[in-house]
Structure formats: C-alpha cells, structure tokens
Amino acid sequence: MNATPIKVLVIDDEPPIRKLLRMGLSTQGYEILEASNGKNALELLEQNPALIVLDLGLPDIQGHELLRMIRGLNDSVPIVVLSSRGDEAGKVQALDLGADDYLTKPFGMDELLARMRAALRHQLQVHGERPVFRSGDLSVDLVRRIVKVGERDVKLSPKEYELLRVLVQHAGKVLTHRFLLKELWDELTDAQYLRVYVRQLRQKIEADPERPQFVLTETGIGYRLRAPD
C-alpha cells in the first residue's frame, strides 16, 4: 500500500456497485470516497480526489449535467464514466464534456483498474509532457518530429503527423470523432476525412493495419492510442 493512498471518488446510486468498487479498489491501496447522488458528490469534491468514477444514471442530477458541473469546478481531475451497454450517444457526450474514459456495465475489476491507471498516467503526461513517447515498437519524438517503428523511420504527411501528435498527447484516452475533427481541421469536416487519415496512418505504423495494435477503434465513438509503456 502507498504511504499516501490515491483518493478515488465513486459516484453511483447502486449500493452493490459501490460495495464492489469499495472492496476491489481498497485492496489495491486506493482510499475510497462514496457518493450515492450528485449533491453528495459535489460536497465530496472539496476533498480533492485524484480520480472520479462516475455512474451516469443518478437519481437527483442527470449524469452529463453533473459531469459538466464537476468540470466547471475542476478541469483536470481524471473521470472514468460508467454507462449502460450500447448507449453510444451517452458515451460520446460524456467524452465531449471532459470524461477521460468509459466502461460499460457490467465490467471487470481488472479492466477498471487498467483504465484508472491510464487516466492517471495521462494526467501526469499532460502536466509534464514527455518529449519522446514510446508504446511497444512505436516511438514519437515530439520535439524533433521523428516517428519510428523499431529502427525504421516513418515518413508521415503533415496531416498524418498532426493526427498522431494529438493521439500521443492524449495516449490511453478515448478521443471522439468530433474532438479529432475540431483539432485537425479549422472547420468541422465530414468524419470520412478522419477515417481516411487514420487508415493511412495505420498503413505506415501498424504491422497489420487490419488488426491495429497502436491506433485502436472505439466503435461508434472515436479512437484511442495505446497507452505509453
């Protein structure tokens, strides 16, 4: 257990889910704060949790509205959203409002822990961005704009590099189609343009572009770059 446990705020109105999370996260050394509704969650936010696990289905404040309120009070705390299966529109909206990741109920504890670690790593990366990103055989030097897979130099077009740079800056986090389109084009463009550049990028950095290991598709939502090593 860490000398100073990482404080996690769990916001969920279902007692069995809160109990599952409390038991699962406590065994990993996390300190758990629990809120069964939005009002209680906003009060506990004053205790400065290092990460928030937020269920969108709350009794008093609609989950997306609570997410907007939390982001208004704290724009950097990592937030992992829990949502019902198949609610793609709800996931996209949550990510666009500032959530870092999402999990679909029911979920496995190991997967939640991995998503939490990635979200915490991403926050550290944003605050102290590393000049060289590494994930598996892929390395991206953000200062010298050099991209390599193993020992092989990869030549990218300016737009392909911009796409990769945005993915690297948010490695491990799901980026929605809308977010990427806004980052890469001054005017909101058709998502088909984005798919073309993702395909071209995969052709250059993936061993098998049909089974990508780095640029991963989140079906109906967007893309995620594999988290750094």
UniProtKB/TrEMBL annotation:
Residues 130-227 form the OmpR/PhoB-type domain. One of its GO terms (cellular component) is protein-DNA complex. The keyword Disulfide bond does not apply. Residues 7-120 form the Response regulatory domain. InterPro entries: CheY-like_superfamily, OmpR/PhoB-type_DNA-bd, Sig_transdc_resp-reg_receiver, WalR-like, WH-like_DNA-bd_sf. It holds the Pfam family Response_reg. GO terms for molecular function: phosphorelay response regulator activity; transcription cis-regulatory region binding. Residues 130-227 bind DNA. The keyword NAD does not apply. Keywords: DNA-binding, Phosphoprotein. GO terms for biological process: regulation of DNA-templated transcription. CDD domains: trans_reg_C. The modification 4-aspartylphosphate is found at D55. It comes from the Bacteria. PANTHER family: KDP OPERON TRANSCRIPTIONAL REGULATORY PROTEIN KDPE (PTHR48111:SF50), REGULATOR OF RPOS (PTHR48111). This is Response regulator transcription factor. It comes from Bradyrhizobium sediminis.
